[in-house]
Amino acid sequence: MKSIAAKCATALAVLSLSALPVLAQDATAAPETPAVSPEVAYIFNTLLFLIGGFLVMWMAAGFAMLEAGLVRSKNVSMQCLKNITLYSIAGIMFWVTGYNLMYTGVDGGFIGSLGPYSFDPVGGDALDTGYSTASDWFFQMVFVAATASIVSGTVAERVKLWPFLIFTAILTGFLYPISGSWQWGAGWLSEMGFSDFAGSTIVHSVGGWAALSGAIILGARKGKYGADGTVHPFPGSSMPLATLGTFILWLGWFGFNGASQLAMGSISDVTDVSRIFANTNMAAAAGVVVAVIMTQLLYKKVDVTMALNGALAGLVSITAEPLAPSMWATLFIGGVGGAIVVLAVPVLDKFKIDDVVGAIPVHLLAGIWGTLIVPLTNGDASYGTQITGIAAYGAFTFVASGIVWYVLKVTIGIRVSDEEEALGLDKVEIGVEAYPEFGTGSQRL
Amino acid sequence: MKSIAAKCATALAVLSLSALPVLAQDATAAPETPAVSPEVAYIFNTLLFLIGGFLVMWMAAGFAMLEAGLVRSKNVSMQCLKNITLYSIAGIMFWVTGYNLMYTGVDGGFIGSLGPYSFDPVGGDALDTGYSTASDWFFQMVFVAATASIVSGTVAERVKLWPFLIFTAILTGFLYPISGSWQWGAGWLSEMGFSDFAGSTIVHSVGGWAALSGAIILGARKGKYGADGTVHPFPGSSMPLATLGTFILWLGWFGFNGASQLAMGSISDVTDVSRIFANTNMAAAAGVVVAVIMTQLLYKKVDVTMALNGALAGLVSITAEPLAPSMWATLFIGGVGGAIVVLAVPVLDKFKIDDVVGAIPVHLLAGIWGTLIVPLTNGDASYGTQITGIAAYGAFTFVASGIVWYVLKVTIGIRVSDEEEALGLDKVEIGVEAYPEFGTGSQRL
Amino acid sequence: MKSIAAKCATALAVLSLSALPVLAQDATAAPETPAVSPEVAYIFNTLLFLIGGFLVMWMAAGFAMLEAGLVRSKNVSMQCLKNITLYSIAGIMFWVTGYNLMYTGVDGGFIGSLGPYSFDPVGGDALDTGYSTASDWFFQMVFVAATASIVSGTVAERVKLWPFLIFTAILTGFLYPISGSWQWGAGWLSEMGFSDFAGSTIVHSVGGWAALSGAIILGARKGKYGADGTVHPFPGSSMPLATLGTFILWLGWFGFNGASQLAMGSISDVTDVSRIFANTNMAAAAGVVVAVIMTQLLYKKVDVTMALNGALAGLVSITAEPLAPSMWATLFIGGVGGAIVVLAVPVLDKFKIDDVVGAIPVHLLAGIWGTLIVPLTNGDASYGTQITGIAAYGAFTFVASGIVWYVLKVTIGIRVSDEEEALGLDKVEIGVEAYPEFGTGSQRL
């Protein structure tokens, strides 16, 4: 979504529209009616946040299904639990500290203010905000949850539940809001001219950096990488669930990118939302098609998980600038995203970075790509500033996340024992098997 | 949703807004334009019903997945069939008798009128209703389906298909509409000042009471309770499906509570809808967090099904008053809902009440809690009246449902034979296994 | 959706509404304000396309889950891959050639013009179209994807991946748009008075005809039909996924039919959308109830897959005219759709036409039924013209699809070898099993 500065401009535009007829009424007996009254614009804007918000909330289910499908059956209950709990914690933390750290009183700086957020009162009538503040909070809150979901996929199958939840609370209550304030809170990067429409960097790369630091500090799953450099595939337990998760994420992305226009109370705003819907869809489509063709050419078979991650990489790639690109540019941007995933997965394995669901290629690398390429289609952005922003988010999140993961590691520990890992997290920490009757799988070890 | 009385007030408010400028035009040559014309408000209100309606319709899929995940694999096809069929029957019955019994001509009394419902004609232009009557019907219809879905989970794995469907038809065509008329049809409880915004009692407790009477009359599944008081867990067949179902219900609840505002044609209405979205989300989040912490403390492991039911209990708890509570109050209300589930499940087992999916703690007990606590945040409600309402709905639904279940039992029978129960309902009544290739489960008995 | 001609009428109506007050202002000092300004109507219309569009996009997930649930586990990954890839290809092809072939310059003829589509520019303000062109493109694009999804279910479990994708590209880039232009592009059938509101024929029958020609040319799965005429059932691998898919499709259909009203910027339009929501839901409900009762009477057991297909057949049946029917007529139309499915499935088997998911009864036969019965409730339609339209779409699509399938067959081949079919497509063409840990199924052959 755009920065608060841009928001204010929108709100002012709405107000000036509404002010005009009043002035006109002073001057003439035949006043011009505003095409869209400020009240109607307020309702439309709020509705956009609500629809966008529930679509992005639904992405929490998408991450849950994607990850449940891509882990082995002995860890599926745990992955389900982590996803519903991280979504809950993200919401609470974003209310307790997150929103105000991100959006209140940043003023070109590095951080907002501390304290829980207050909504409009019942029957609120503060027309001058241009939308309901609760709808805005709801929409921003589901974004932070997406960031946390990215992490859970990468560190799956070996991280302990409680340290993971503590990390989630810190990420969603502090790390994401602080770095988010730099751009969307009208902080220093926003003043410098950094451009990240709906969060290729601010949401996806941040999630990816947090995941990467976790994967490194946590180490790979036992048996994933042989001493001789061989990589052992650990096939996911359910491709249809992974597919379902991808479709859910794709659907949710219309809210993620579309509602980041932040307004639909004018015909030009709603027209832009429409362009964003079309571009978002087509970037994903290009990611799929490129991943399918590339895996066919490289491996003589088409890997369904690559097709799914190709869709997601296309979506992440277009998220930094889903409005400006022509359709040709959109297909290029999304298609490169798909290619990045196909090429990056084996590279990560070479470095023995064990990313269970492929979240680092999808969210971190495609997020960097999408942010970097913004100046191609958006004349207001510059490559230098984009690189500055990408580097700033990367350095802060990687270091800060790394410190948190490290402190958790040396205090309460972040990893289950080898024996527990072999048994599966469902048996060890949950006590409820995901599929108790489907017998020959990893959960029978 | 609010009662018809409240609805009328809203409609009048809209009309008076629209009337004002006309009056103004009589008095002056520079008329004030209404901020939101009655036509625009009509469109917004109708759109709220349509969006809310499709979100609540989607909850039917949520119940289906939740229940499919929580029964054993030998009964999964049956649970799928029951859910899609009960949704269908609920719609037809609510058209044949339900809507008019609930909403037409109640006039402070105990019941509406008999007969099928008529929609607006094609190209309808009855502006004075404030919204399309078909959109209102659609929205109310999906609510009654939710009530029926609650029952199907509790009585799963041993109730026969056809008696269950007959019960569904009676519940959705008569029992729910009659008791619903007392409040939402502007009946006696509404006049007394009972407060149940979106149906903690009217929808959820009613479903829970019907489920409870069914569970008692039907008896527990064979082998669930040992003669010595031991309780044998029958683990659900798929945790990811149960998780998916919970996320679907959570998503649908934005429509359930949000659209129960019944209007978004003014900035104060849409602001209230936004508050409701935020509160609904956070009550669920609190339910999850409390359930996770409590199961960790009580059992040293975190039960994923408790986390899921904690979310649902939080949602049910906030449904009676999702607008007025501050965020602190919301977290308290939802969190207590989560605690209720964790504490009540073993109590039900002590009484040998076999509730397959935990619907009674979630919908009945959290529904009572949510209704009871309304006066804490809503000054217009009183504890006495809330208790009266809770008791009235409980007595009527428990007794009336019990009579229906009992008559079905002594006539056509409601329970499959022991042998059939062991085989599983899929083999006995459906003939289509849910997972014919996943071999070692209960369906191989 | 209605034809472009009807669209233009709507746009003109909106414009005339907006023009009126201007005229009035010339005549009097107390101008009448338009109830809904053209700008507000534009926003509402665009929003309808966006909401309808994301709901129909979600149907792609519905088809994926339905088909993943109804094929054997050894082909599930392939079915997932095909569905996400066909959705991607459909979008790209509909942009490259489809939209303009279907909607631009048809002028009562048989085909539009060639070339990629251009959207509104950023910040578009072309009020006279009455809605954002990008939103319209998005909405039309998801329809073509639905057509392609229909085919993939029928030819599952034996068609090769790449020929299927090539067929998809031709169907979505050429065949569907050309025939679609005859009606929705204001072509010859539209001028003749053919009536197909949301595409019982134009979308569903067309998909069904393409599927039928594919099924015939491809032949049945090995072992499906014995030499002695026996039919061997190949049970689907997951009933809950098939149920989920059906619920997703049902939900998406509110967008499919509802947004085909093409406008909600007036109270009569939004009221019509509401009627369509109610009718769409109830036709599906009737389809379910009839299928459940009929399978009980015919087979003494209730087949859950018939109930699911009954819902879909009810939905397809009402799609040609979801607005005009009274509720009685709606239940009749949807109920007959359910009956068609129950009766047609064994007939197809008699002809040894192997339709894996039952798409031909659901989409082709119920599509014909729904189109044929339009004159019962819509006085503007005639049985003669309806039959002409049905025949024209059938002849063109069956022949053209057949040629494409045939050319693919004699060139690159469309069917895997017998050995590969026995192994399953997941092993042969994907290399990723759908359920690697659930051991005793078809994938262990």
Walk me through what this model shows:
3 copies of one chain form a homotrimer. With 445 residues, chain A is mainly α. Chain A has a single domain (40-109, 127-444), classed as Ammonium transporter fold, CATH 1.10.3430.10. The first copy, chain A, is built from 16 helices and no strands. Chain A has helices spanning 4-27, 38-70, 76-103, 133-154, 161-183, 188-192, 200-218, 239-258, 267-299, 304-319, 327-350, 359-372, 374-377, 383-410, 418-423, 425-430. In chain A, helix 2 (38-70) runs parallel beside helix 4, helix 4 runs parallel beside helix 7 and helix 8 runs parallel beside helix 10 (304-319). Chains in contact: A-B, A-C, B-C. Chains A and B meet through helix 2, helix 3 and helix 4 of A and helix 2, helix 8, helix 9 and helix 10 of B.
In a few lines, what is going on in this structure?
Chain A has helices at residues 4-27, 38-70, 76-103, 133-154, 161-183, 188-192, 200-218, 239-258, 267-299, 304-319, 327-350, 359-372, 374-377, 383-410, 418-423, 425-430.
List keywords for this structure.
homotrimer, 445 residues, mainly alpha, Ammonium transporter fold, 69% helix, globular, disordered N terminus
Strand content of chain A: under 5%
The third-level CATH topology of chain A is Ammonium transporter fold
| SS elements, strand count of chain A | 0
Distance between the termini of chain A: 47 Å
Compute the number of helices of chain A.
Answer: 16
How would the global form of chain A be characterised?
globular
Largest sheet of chain A: none
